[in-house]
Design goal:
This protein is α/β, with parallel strands linked by helices. The chain has helices at residues 17-33, 40-52, 57-65, 86-93, 109-116, 128-131, 139-148, 162-172, 205-208, and strands at residues 4-7, 14-15, 81-82, 98-103, 124-127, 155-159, 175-179, 197-199.
Length: 209
Amino acid sequence: MIEWLFFDIGSTLVDEGEALDNFVNHCIDKLAQEGILVSHRYYYEKLLYIAKLGGNPIYETWSYFAPSHLKRPRWSHENERLYPYVTSVLRSLRKKYHLGIIANQGKDLHGRLERFGILDNFEVIKSSFDSGVSKPDMEIFRLPLEQANIEPSRSIYIGDRVDNDMVPAKKLGMKTIRMKQGLGQYSPEDRFYPSDWQVASIQELLEIV
């Protein structure tokens, strides 16, 4: 019996589309300062190409264009917003399950969740900033499971990335639901650790759990 649902943040609960567009512009501007001219379209095509290969598009695309000494611009959360129906779906799910967060996120995740109006839905929140360990390291999954006092097999992890989310959660023994949103939707499934379910929007979770 499933008792806990754990969520990722980016491209799972939060739409990062506009934030990604701004991030690409910052990358292009910084490259231009070094005399490296790249169009927005070409940079974005490289992001998609790497995602389809199952790589890490944010890091690998920057490494492809930038010289090794040039530091990548920081991601800004300023233009992120919740996907439609996130608030209502979380309210429905919390009536049946305990909800938690496991995510690679920076400082003040609690504050961001509060500003989105969804903080009160989650009983356990574990970020890479707070725990000192990042996905895909399985330790970041073990810590909240221990805090919740639950076996992995009695939980489901819901995220968008194959490499960061589906594979480590499956290795640990959790069930997984892959949200096919953002850049992660283009990555191929892992042949050894495929996701248990795939959905195109958070509303579809109500049909599964």
